[in-house]
Structure formats: C-alpha cells, structure tokens
Amino acid sequence: MRVPNRNSDQNDYMKQLANTIADYEAQKYRHENEHDPVGNLKFLIEQHNMSSSDLGRLLGNRSLGSRILNGHRALSKEHIRKLSKHFNVNPSVFL
C-alpha cells in the first residue's frame, strides 16, 4: 500500500498483513514446491484411467509399470521421453 507519510500504526498493520499472507501462502501452497516424480506419474495415470499394466505396456514391458510405481525401478531417460510425449507434459515433471 503506497501512502505517503504512513504513520507507525499503518506500518505495523502492513507488516502484519504481509506476514499473514505469507503464512497463508506457505501453508496453502507448500505441496506445490515439493517435487515427487512418481507421485506425478501416479496422478497422471489416475487422471487418464490407466493401470500399472497400461503404464508398463506404454513403456515396453507390462511388469515395468508396477515396479516403477512401487519404487523398485527408476525412470530412465527413455521412459521419461515416452511419458512426457504420451501425457503431453514437460519432461521435468518426471525428474
């Protein structure tokens, strides 16, 4: 708030308002800053009504989908390329 010659009460109010907004945003949007490639993949699979077998077939091996989703196998560069093309998302979603 730009007010020429704010008094100390107005300054205190603006500081408190800014802190309240910052706290709210930190709480509301904290999960957007956390990056979870497998979580992102699970979300996309769910949104596209796919199963782990469907994911495996997309990647070239039916059992591969389950292993990736359970954390037993990491995504390779080739997997990321295929997934980003299939879901039409930036590859960084899976990095």
Question: Would you kindly provide a brief summary of this structure?
Answer:
The chain is 64% helix and 0% strand. The protein has 95 residues and is mainly alpha-helical.
Question: What does this entry look like structurally?
Answer:
This protein has a single domain, classed as 434 Repressor (Amino-terminal Domain) (Orthogonal Bundle). The chain is rod-shaped, with a radius of gyration of 22 Å. It has helices at residues 8-28, 30-33, 37-47, 52-59, 64-69, 77-87. The chain is mainly α and 95 residues long. It is built from six helices and no strands. The model has no long low-confidence stretch (mean pLDDT 88).
Radius of gyration: 22 Å
- Using the 3D structure, state the CATH architecture: Orthogonal Bundle
Query: Any idea how many domains?
Result: 1
Give the full name of the CATH homologous superfamily.
Answer: lambda repressor-like DNA-binding domains
Largest sheet: none
